Amino acid sequence: MSFGNSLQLNTGAPIPQIGLGTWRSKPNEVENAVEIAIRNGYRHLDLAMIYRNQDEVGRALKKVIPSVVTREQLFITSKLWNCSHQQGPAEAELDETLKQLGLTYLDLYLIHWPAAFEPGNGLLPPHPTKAGEIQLDTRTSIVDTWKTMIKLKETGKVKAIGVSNFTIEHIQALIDATGVVPAANQIEAHPLLPQDELVAYCARMGIHVTAYSPLGNNRGCSV
């Protein structure tokens, strides 16, 4: 496996072709995994606030920067969670992400899902009257959130902005409203879920596709 290969975002920045994901990692495993991965050639880390382990990643980064790599040699992606789609909460979450990681900027920041939750009541705000359901924020559109992401990029705290789990219709709505094309769309894509139409659309629009679960997802698997 070669870790030296990279692709290019529409910003002109290179993105390493192979990355280490940190989703579904058990507590206290991520710190060790990230340190070992970087020492063995990984340069792209994929993170998110909802994974609840960015502080562990930050501890690992302190062990390898600058003794093993410089900050500039790493490509670090994180994602804005659903309860922070509004402008104030979005910047606050970005600042908290940077604090957890011990960094001053992210290479790529994504809208994790095209759905907004009510802010101010945790990562998974319970619906006030419907047991087991999440309270949605129906006032904040994905275009509103994209405009906020554009402003976050202007602060210099993120080098590129993109989306995750977005459909063709979602992405086109962002472009039509703002003229700003996402740098990336991170989606589940593998032989059982190739998403050919979406991948082709992204290629036409110059949007990098990052595949998560590229070898398949084990949800519902009985073997």
In short:
By secondary structure, this protein is α/β, with parallel strands linked by helices. The chain contains 6 helices and 9 strands; from the N terminus they run E-E-E-H-E-H-E-H-E-H-E-H-E-H-E. It is globular.
Could you please describe the fold and organization of this structure?
The chain is an alpha/beta fold and 223 residues long. Helices cover 31% and strands 16% of the residues. It has helices at 30-39, 54-64, 87-101, 142-154, 168-178, 196-205; strands spanning 6-8, 14-16, 20-21, 44-46, 75-80, 108-111, 161-164, 184-188, 208-212. The strands form two sheets. A seven-stranded parallel beta sheet has the order 3-4-5-6-7-8-9, covered by helices on one side. Strands 1-2 form a two-stranded antiparallel sheet. It is globular. The protein starts with 5 loop residues before the first strand and ends in an 11-residue tail after the last strand. The mean pLDDT is 93.
Sum up the structure in keywords:
223 residues; alpha/beta; seven-stranded parallel sheet; 31% helix; globular
Outline the secondary-structure elements:
Blueprint: E1 6-8, E2 14-16, E3 20-21, H1 30-39, E4 44-46, H2 54-64, E5 75-80, H3 87-101, E6 108-111, H4 142-154, E7 161-164, H5 168-178, E8 184-188, H6 196-205, E9 208-212
Parallel strand pairs: 3-4, 4-5, 5-6, 6-7, 7-8, 8-9
Antiparallel strand pairs: 1-2
Helix pairs in contact: 1-2, 2-3, 4-5
Class by helix and strand content? alpha/beta
Oligomer: single chain
Instruction: Round the mean pLDDT to the nearest integer and report it.
Output: 93
Largest sheet, strands/sense/barrel: 7 strands, parallel
Shape: globular
Total of helices? 6
Strand line-up in the sheet with most strands: 3-4-5-6-7-8-9
Integer-rounded radius of gyration: 17 Å
Helix-strand pattern:
EEEHEHEHEHEHEHE
State the low-pLDDT regions, or none.
none
Distance between the termini: 27 Å
Q: What share of residues are in beta strands?
A: 15-25%
